[in-house]
Every structure is written in structure tokens, then in C-alpha cells.
Amino acid sequence: MDIILITTVIASLFLLIGVAEPLADRMRVPFTVILALLGVAIATAALFLLRTDLTNALNPMAEAILDLPIRSNVFLYVFLPTLLFQATLGMNLRRMLDDWVPILVLAVVAVVVATFTVGYALSMVSALPLAACLLVGAIVSTTDPSAVVSNFRSISAPQRLSRIIEGESLLNDAAAIALFGLFMGFVMLGVPDPDLGQALAQFPVLIFGGALAGWFAARIAVWLMALFARFELAQISVSVALPYLAYIGAEQMIGASGVIAVVAAGLTLNLTGPSRLAPQSWANLREVWGLLAHWAGALIFVLAALFIPRLLEEARPSDFALIVVVIVAAIAARVVILFGLLPLLTLLRASPPVDRPYRAAILWGGLRGAVTLALALAVTESARVPLEVKRVVGILATGFTLFTLIVQGSSLRWVIAKLGLDRLSPIDDALSRQVVAVALQTVREDVARTTENYELSRETVRSEAKRFGERLDEAVKQAEESADLLDRDRITLGLIALAGHERDTILDRVRDRTISARMAEQVLADAERLIESARQGGRSGYQRAAKRSVTYGRAFRAAVFLHNRLKLSVPLSRMTADRFEYLLSQRLILRDLDTFIDGRIRRIHGRRVADLLQELLARRIELVETALEGLRLQYPGYAEELERRFIRRTALRLEEREYAAMRDDGLIGAEVYTTLAQELVQRRAAAETRPPLDIAPQRSDLVRQLPLFADLDDATLRQLGRAFQTVYANADDILIRKDNAAKRVFFIATGAVELQVAGQTWRLGPGEMFGQMAILMQKPRRALVRAIAPSTLLVLDEDRFRRLLKRSDSLQQAVRASAEKRGIAPERLMPDLKMPDLKAAKPPSTTAD
């Protein structure tokens, strides 16, 4: 084919893409629907021109359109990795993990159910072999990421709804394509009735093999990109190579799922990239991928749509009945999952609840598109598939795709409106009024400064100020006097605004590099969780999210287990250093929020709401300070090292700002500025490196700080440091239950606990112990002990505790004081020990069991 014609056709397609987006916005239909319709229209026109005798002038162009060297492999190996990879880079993974159960159910279970439902339904009404029917089921069970993501973003669907359906569309491609490969093999081998057990047994290998290949490829790519820290274009080039190498490597080298490999590579880069790349480099990389994905998504729709007229050319009336069967079976399978399995999982507390309107929108939003057509093309291009199977598979897949795009896609906005998902809730509506009022107050201040600077005429300024003031007064009045808002709603609005300002502050600090890129994603994710928790649960939801942000997670506890039992210290060291830096970053952000409460929220919601928010903020600061103080005691000096690093980064940022100002003022030229900027890059790289944390000797230092062991020599303290185990407890964690056997004694290093015994309650803090009474009396525990703050505890087993008790006078004093407070004769505890006189020496702490 003439290269000039091919170039003309491709350039025309890009022109078509440029026209389609504003056209879709004007017609208020999804962008992908317009692309598909335009592609079908172009292909139909090209076929008409080749078969008509009206003119031959446009035949070369028609032939160029129909003979484009595009095959199914181009869709699967060129366009699909681009779409999947970019979608994973744009995902908020930490928020998506909140809905991982419904996402996996829709992405895996729903695909399997839809495949077999459509397959067996077809086998009952058609003459196709079961393997071919199941092949059709696999083809139509995958939702298209480009269609789904673009449609839901274009209609401003609720964020949680978008997250669920975007996550499903990314992951279910892997499941559907894996099933497609299995059943395609059976069809090509002529196996009419496949062994389904054997087919499903290969499924985990495809999934886990692809995930491992994608993770490994991404780790290598991130390492390379970190090496090229000064070369942004080199980093972007490595990221462009990553999805294709991961896809091809998984498919061709280990026989796993290339789609899963691309998703795993994108997720890995999403998690590790922000901490290894400069913030601006990461932002630019995502912008480049956004453009690549836009082009790839548009081209895949247009090019796939070009094949639709040819795939439907040989359609018979009976085929349309089969299309109806496929549509009904696919929708029925989706209904079973959405309205049967998901509510059941919610009742069993295995999945967070998904509201019925959300499930209805997900049902109607499962659009098919270019991926489905590409798989159908792969069947029609195979020489080993029977002709009749090719014809029917192509027609059914094409007909079903057209139904989802034209019927479901064009009506999705209407369905969302009918379900009420496009309307703001009373809280959101009031929030929008609050935003307007706050924004207008800021605008008034800025306009006042502007009019003073430009010395405008007083009459003009006065008339415009009066007009603006009326609008501002009305906005403030609406924000203050919303008749449909209760007091708790006003508090919720204030918390949402406070969390939103916290997120904006974090973004400013990340841009200024006050907060490191390593911590950026985590603190931003926690800020967004605060917003959604406040929106859904009000004050209690906000407090739960705030408490969750400082608690010890499962990963941290797993690292402690590895350190205590297997002597693997690297995970604990890294996660402890992360926790140090995270808490310091949070403290930095929280201390900036007082001004926002006094300056903005107090104006809108009044003094009472502002005072309550100040109280909640003070509690958050106290939680962070308590957790940070625990780490300071355990690892003295490390927090100071991180603070020094923060000061160095701040100084470099200010230095960079000064150089830029001098360049803008003409004091230095471009050459001098470039030289200074390069020197700053090198110094910033050194300042960004976090000091290492050595956790090995820290336990003995922590033991040495406890007053109970003040009379022990250094050799004994070192032995104790090796004998103790460290336990980290969150607030409300149960440490000791009633009637359990007494085997360990707990010493509080940081934090606080509450003991409940026989209707009485004691609270113990740092330096105190509990659990010793039951051991010494050789009776089951009678106390219920729970942590009331994030706590670090040192735990000693019974034998070592008894040996230590014989050696330490201060520990004997503490035990005797605790016994007398409980009304227990000390002789019942330690008849063989010589106890010192408590009247002559005051015990270092009060203990209880």
C-alpha cells in the first residue's frame, strides 16, 4: 500500500479523534460511543464506495481504509498495554483497597459466572459445540477499560462508584483473556466438550505467573529510573518500555497472562514511583501517559469499529436471536453477582456494603468495546477455527458490543440521573454553598488589594464593591442558615472542609519538598480517607480515620514477628523509619490547621463548631505526639536526624526560590542559573537520602529507661534487652483476657493501658507493669487489660521474671506495693524473698494486675 495513503489515513484518524471529543460533549453522549459510530460510518462508506459504480475517484482512499495492516495482535500487544498501564498509574490504590472485595468479585467471579452462563445458554439454543459457546462467553464477559473509565469520568459519577467499576474493568480483562486462551485452544484442537476442571486448574498459574512477571519487570524499571534521576526524558522512556516488555515477557517466555503482568507492573510503579522519583518528574510522567492513553483509547475504538460492518456482513436472522440470548444471559449473570453474591458477602461481613443504586449503575455500566472486538478478530483470523464458528463468534461478539455501546453507553447518563447519583446529597449541597462563601471572601480580599495597587477610580470601585458585597452576603447567609441542616451536619461540613484543607496543605508541602515523595502518597491517602469518612460517618467517622492513621497495621506487626522470631530486622527497620517520618509529616501538617479553623470555618459555621473542630484537632495532635514520643523513647536521636534532614531540604527549597527570583529579575543569566540549579540537584539528592535506622541495640536502651530496672548493672540490662520481646498495641487492643493462663509479665515502655478487676478500674502508664500477680499467685488471670493509646510493651516470660525479681530490689518494691494496694499479703506472693521495708523506700511506680 502507498505510504502516502497510509499516512493520510492515520492523520485523518487523529483529526477525527480531535473532532469527536467536542462533538460528544455537545451531544451529551460518551466519547467512546461517538468514536465507535464514526468508525462504523467510515467503514460502511468505504465498502459502499468500492461496490458502487457511481465513482472510482475515492476508491484508493477506501481501499487504504479497509486494507490498513491492523490485526487482532495490534490491539492486544500495542493498544491494550497502554490503556491498562495508564489506568493503573492514575488509580488511588490505597483507597481502592477499601473496596478490594467487590472489585475482585466483579473482576474474577463475575467473569467466570458470565462465561459459563453465556456458554451454556448458547449451547442449549444453537448448534455450536460447547467449547465454542464457552469461547463466546469468555469474549463477551470482559468490560473494556477505555470505554468504562472514560464514560464514568465524563459523567462525574460518585468517586466510590468510579473506583469499583474502574478496578473491575482493569482486572477482569486478565481473567477473561485467560479464559479466552483456554477455550480458544480447545476450539482449535477440535475438542467439542472440554475438561473444565483442567481448564480452571490452569487459571491460577496464568494469574500468579503474570503478577510475578509484572512485579519483577517494574522493580527493574524503577531501579533504572532512580539511576537516571537527572534525566527526566530517560525516565519516561523506561516507563514506556515497561508495559510492553512485561506483556511480551509474560506471554512468550513463561506462558502467563500478559494483561496481569501489565497491571502488576503499573501497580508496582504506582506504589514505588512517587518515593523514587522527583515530584515534578512523576507528575510529568503521568501526563505523558495520559496523552498516550487518550490516543490509544481513541484509536483502538475507531480501528476496531472499522471491522464491524465486515463482521456483520454475513449475519442471518437467526443470528440476531442468538445475540439476544447472549445479551440476556450476560445481564442475568451480572444480576446474580451484583444483587445476590455481593449482598450475601455483606451479610457475612466479608465485604463493605455497596448501595443498591451503585449496584444498578454497575450493572448498566459494564460496557464492552475494542477488547471484545479484538478477541473476536483473533478468532476470525485463525485458520484452525472452523468457518461456521468464525462467522458466529464474530457476529455475536460484534452485536453484543454494539448493544452495550449504543444502548447502554448512550443511556448511562440517564440511568445515573434516574438513580439519583448525579445529584448532590444535602451534605454535599451545603458543602458547595460553603465553598462558594469561603471562596468569595478570599476573592474580596484579593480584589481589594488589586484595586489599591492599580489606583482605580473610587466610583467604579465603590459600585463594583457594593455589587460583589451583596453576592457575598447572600452566599454567607445561605451557608449559615441552611434550614435543612442539623447541628451534626454542620459539624460534618466543617470536618470535610478541614480535611480538604489538610489535603491541599499536603499538596503544597509536597510541591515545596517539605514532605518527601516517599511519604506523599500515604499522607494524601489518609487525608482523602478523612474526607470520605467524615462524609459518611460524621464526627465518629472522622475520629476513626484519624485513629487509624497512627495505629500499628498488620504489615508492621508482621515485621515485628519477623524481627522477634526469625531475626529479620530489615522490614521492621524500614517500616519504623517510615513511621517516624510519617508522624513528623503529620505533625507538621496538623499544626498548620488552627489558622484555617479560626479564619475560615469560624466565619461560616460559628464559634461552637469551630471550637469543637479545634478540640478534635487537638486530640489528633495528641495522638500523633503520643505515638511520636513512643518512638523517640525507643530510638533516641533518630527523630532529630529526620528533623535535621527536613531543615536541610527546606533551606535548599528557599535557595532554589532565590535563584529563580534572581533569574526573573535579570540579576543572573540563564547560564549561571543552570549551573546553580545543577549544583542544587546534587545537594538535594544527598538531602533526600533518609538516615538509616539501626533497631538492633534499641531494646536495651528502652529497658534502661524504665525506673523498675534502675538498680541493675549494665551487663544485666543487656541480657534483659535480649530476653524481652517487644509488643506494639493499638488503642482498644485486648492484651490480657480473664481466666487465661498466666505466662508473661508486661512492662509499659510507652503508651497506657486500663485494667478491669472485680468492678474496679486502674490505669497504668510508662514505667509500670501488669500481669505479675497471677504468675506469683499461680492462679488464672482475673483482670481484663486493654490498651487505651498506641503502646509499646516489653514482655518477659515467667521464668525470666522470677529470676529478675530475686535480683532487683526496686522490682520487689513495686510488686509489694501492688499487692498491698490490692489487699494481698506479700508473703502469699514471694515467701522465700526478703522484701525491703516500703516505709523506708518509696516504690518507683504503682502497678496492678
Automatic annotation (TrEMBL):
UniProt KW keywords: Cell membrane, Ion transport, Membrane, Sodium, Sodium transport, Transmembrane, Transmembrane helix, Transport
GO BP annotation list: regulation of intracellular pH; sodium ion import across plasma membrane
Basic and acidic residues compositional bias, start-end: 818-840
GO MF annotation terms: potassium:proton antiporter activity; sodium:proton antiporter activity
InterPro entries (alphabetical): Cation/H_exchanger_CPA1, Cation/H_exchanger_TM, cNMP-bd_dom, cNMP-bd_dom_sf, RmlC-like_jellyroll
Its membrane topology: Multi-pass membrane protein
Transmembrane regions listed in the UniProt entry: 6-24, 31-50, 70-89, 101-122, 128-149, 170-191, 203-229, 241-268, 288-308, 320-341, 361-380, 392-416
Cellular location(s): Cell membrane
Sequence ranges assigned to domain Cyclic nucleotide-binding in this UniProt record: 708-822
Pfam families (UniProt xref): cNMP_binding (PF00027), Na_H_Exchanger (PF00999)
Matching SMART domains: cNMP
Region of interest: Disordered: 815-849
Gene3D superfamilies: 6.10.140.1330, Jelly Rolls
GO cellular component term of the entry, any: plasma membrane
Superkingdom field: Bacteria
Name listed for the protein in its UniProt record: Na(+)/H(+) antiporter ApNhaP
